[in-house]
Design goal:
Mean pLDDT: 91
Order of helices and strands: HHEHEEEEEEEHEEEE
Number of helices: 4
Largest sheet: 7 strands, mixed
Structural class: alpha/beta
Strand content: 25-35%
Helix content: 10-25%
Length: 181
């Protein structure tokens, strides 16, 4: 995809996501800044902020767990190179700790694919598996929503015993809901 295609998909994705009742009601949303060819998330982050939503963004820790910081606009992001891994855009302000995500009403998750049962395939680093386990331990029950391209919604993805389904997937063309965890 060209850079223009990625930007346009990001705009369409933001429009679809903003139609979700969960995001309309949510006061705190844990999100992420897209990287590489992932559907762009900046338009969505800015639209959420414009609605008065508190947006939390992850910061990768050395053990692949995630800390969190608040997104206050594009100037609040720093490009961080993590060793041999890809560079990520992370919040440059105060770190709130790994448990900050437990205050989220909605958690927007990256992924490589989601299947017909709502199972999400991640990148394999386990960062979001840790987040989901942390939410479960805390008794937090945010809505879990994956942001993908239409072609990344597939019949089946590999799943392990600890994997849990998400509530919805948003693509540039629409929303698909699942029974959820």
């Amino acid at each position: 995809m060209t850079a223009d295609d990625v930007r346009e998909a990001g705009r369409a994705l933001a429009e679809r996501a903003l139609e979700l009742p969960e995001l309309a009601r949510g006061r705190t949303v844990a999100a992420y800044v897209s990287v590489g060819s992932e559907p762009g998330t900046l338009a969505l982050l800015d639209a959420l902020r414009a609605r008065g939503v508190r947006v939390l963004l992850p910061a990768l820790l050395p053990d692949n767990d995630l800390d969190w910081g608040e997104y206050t606009g594009p100037d609040s992001l720093a490009r961080i190179q993590h060793g041999g891994k890809m560079a990520l855009f992370e919040p440059s302000g105060t770190r709130l700790g790994p448990d900050a995500v437990t205050a989220a009403d909605v958690v927007l998750l990256p992924g490589l694919a989601v299947d017909a049962h709502g199972m999400r395939l991640g990148r394999g680093g386990g960062s979001y598996d840790r987040v989901l386990a942390r939410l479960e331990r805390a008794g937090a029950r945010p809505r879990l929503v994956v942001l993908l391209y239409d072609t990344e919604v597939v019949a089946r993805v590999p799943a392990e015993a600890h994997d849990k389904p998400v509530h919805a997937v948003v693509t540039p063309s629409g929303v698909r809901r699942f029974p959820g965890p």
